[in-house]
Design a protein that fits this description.
The structure is a single chain. It is built from three helices and seven strands; from the N terminus they run βαββββααββ. The chain is α/β, with parallel strands linked by helices. The chain has a four-stranded mixed beta sheet with strand order 1-4-3-2, covered by helices on one side. Strands 5-7-6 form a three-stranded mixed beta sheet.
């Protein structure tokens, strides 16, 4: 089974920049003018998951709350520090997490749509 998380956005390029520059995800594919949608698939080659972001003339009607999270578990301290440095370099400041677990074990950031992304220290 493969997993895809799909989300509509209003600024596709800002989303691409956020997830590729900060998290090191790759553009795995894209499409244009498919039933009035443009989109991109972001992830890492060889994995069974990816993120899909789309944009269309119709604006998204969703909103996030403090417990809606994309959580990325780093494999070692070097990876965690590299991702943290990426966020720092792109002037992305961590925000306070609502859940005490994420406060203790990771750093939380807002993507361009206001959704929370957590990078977790290796456990």
């Amino acid at each position: 089974m493969k997993f895809r998380l799909a989300r509509h956005t209003t600024n596709l390029q800002a989303i691409i920049d956020f997830y590729t520059q900060n998290l090191g995800l790759e553009v795995l594919g894209s499409f244009e003018a498919h039933s009035n949608y443009d989109g991109v698939f972001l992830g890492k080659k060889g994995l069974d998951w990816h993120l899909e972001f789309t944009v269309s003339p119709e604006a998204p009607k969703h909103h996030s709350d403090e417990d809606d999270l994309l959580v990325f578990y780093t494999q070692n301290s070097n990876e965690f520090e590299r991702l943290k440095a990426n966020f720092d370099r792109h002037k992305q400041k961590p925000i306070a997490a609502k859940n005490p677990y994420w406060k203790e074990h990771g750093l939380t950031y807002l993507d361009p749509d206001g959704f929370r992304v957590v990078i977790v220290r290796p456990l």
